[in-house]
């Protein structure tokens, strides 16, 4: 009796098995868009998410719109990434909300909005990604936080940012230790103030002076840091400050 022939594997499937896949949240502009390009430049396939992201003409970029503070969206990002590319190697938790107000002027809506994206979104998508990384026996999570956690600035009220991004710094170390023996690394990049569409050009001169190097950071500075961590196999639990010396002092 003859057994059924084994189905042939297409060249595309073979290539997908060998290529790494990165998931980037908050990927539609600024740092997120820069990270997507940095991973593509290195041959990664990319799952790009944000609430307003548009489809990409690049067949190696899967754009998935939606708010990751909704668990169903977070699980869909990971699930559809697996369905298309077959694996998840890296997750960059870049999505974030920053609301600068005096502490007593924050509203319940402000509080809920910042926590939903900065912490709840992180929780949902990281759980889904790490579950898949465990099956592979390898993976890398990078959290984008802020140097304001370590070095508050007079004139830049940031309690909710420090509350949430400080939580991510702590979670980075905790997850790094929990998963160190399972082949999964967890790191963070802690930026200073980066030149993105969030900052109006007329504010750039003042914002530059907040850094000892007397300039704002560029999106490429953060992308380079993430790429470094991606290649640094002996680094885990690290909070890498990319802030022009801001966290070191003034």
Mean pLDDT: 91
Shape: globular
CATH H-level homologous superfamily name: NAD(P)-binding Rossmann-like Domain
Annotation field: number of helices: 7
Largest sheet: 7 strands, parallel
Fraction of residues in β-strands: 15-25%
Strand order of the largest sheet: 3-2-1-4-5-6-7
Determine the N-to-C terminus distance: 80 Å
The low-confidence parts are none
How do the helices and strands follow one another from N- to C-terminus?
A: HEHEEHEHEHEHHE
Provide the domain count.
Answer: 1
By DSSP, the count of extended strands is 7
In terms of quaternary structure, the protein is single chain
Computed Rg: 19 Å
* Helix and strand composition category: alpha/beta
| Level-2 CATH architecture | 3-Layer(aba) Sandwich
CATH class: Alpha Beta
| Helicity, as a percent range | 40-55%
CATH topology label: Rossmann fold
Report on this structure:
With 250 residues, this protein is of the alpha/beta class. It has a single domain, classed as 3-Layer(aba) Sandwich (Rossmann fold), CATH 3.40.50. It has helices at residues 11-18, 30-41, 71-85, 108-136, 159-178, 204-208, 219-231, and strands at 21-25, 45-50, 61-65, 90-93, 139-144, 184-191, 239-242. It has a 7-stranded parallel β-sheet, sandwiched between helices.
